[in-house]
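Good morning C.,

I know you're traveling, so I'll keep this short. The sequence:
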Amino acid sequence: MNSTCAVAYHLLMARYAWATDIHLDFLANRPEQLIQFAESLVKGDPTGVLLTGDISTAKGLILHLSAIEKIVQRPVYFVLGNHDYYGSSIEQVRKQMKELTNVSPFLRYMPLMPYYALTPSTAVIGHDAWYDANCGDWKRSTFGMVDWTAIHEFKQVNKDKAKIVELARQLAVEGVNHVQEGIKKAVRYHKNIVILTHYPPFAETHIHEGRVGDDRAQPWFTNKMMGDMLLQAAAAFPNHTFTLLAGHTHGKFTGKIKENLIVNVGAAEYYNPQLQGLIEVP
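The C-alpha cells, ready to paste straight into the viewer:
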C-alpha cells in the first residue's frame, strides 16, 4: 500500500477512546484530576468514548457519568462493573442508568440496546455481565469479594458461597444472552463487532501482577460463559471480526484468541484513571 492510499485508509477509520476501571470515587477530593482525566479522553479527537465498568460507586455514578458527558460532548458507550453497584442494589442502579440515559444526549448504557452502529461496518454490543465461577475452584477458594457485603442482592444471601455462585451465574447468563442476541442482529449489517463487558472471558486473560491469576481468584475474575459463547460466534461467523474490551483485573492483556477474536483487558490503578488507548474501527 503506497503512502497516499495509507493516508486515505486512515481517514476512513473512526477512533474511540477506551478507558476502564477508572474508579472516579477515589477522586472525590481531587476534582481537578477528574477534569483532567475527562479531558484526556478527547485529546485525540475521537468520535466517542468506550467505558468498560468500575466507573464509580452507586453514590457517585450519576455525578461522574454526567461530568464525563459534559466535558467530552460526544457519545459515551458504557457498561458497569461490580464497584458501580457498591452501596446500592443491582436493580436500583440499573433503573437509575435507564432514567439517566433516557434524558441524556450522549450517554449510552449498553444493556438497554441490542447494539449501536459505530460506523457502517462496525457495531458495538455490551453488557455488565458478571464473573461466573467456572474457572478455578470456587469451592476451595478462600478469596473474598467486597461485592458480597456491598451489593444488596449479594448481601441478602448472607455469605452462602453456593448461593453467591448461583446469583453470579444468573447475572453472567443475562449478560451472555444479551451479547449473543446482539451479535445475531449486528452481523447482518456489520462485519466488525466490538463487545464491551467488565469481566475477562478466558482464564488466560485474567492477569494479576504480570501473571495469570491463580485458582483461588479465577472464579471471581472471569466469565467463562462469555468466552465460550464468543468462541462459538467466531466459528459461526469466520468472515467477521470480534474485538472484546474488558477490565476488572487491573492487569493488562492483549491477545488474539482466534484469528477473528481479539481480547483486550485494561490495566488500572486506583487514584490514577488512564486512557487505555484509541480503538480504531473501520
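Safe travels,
E.
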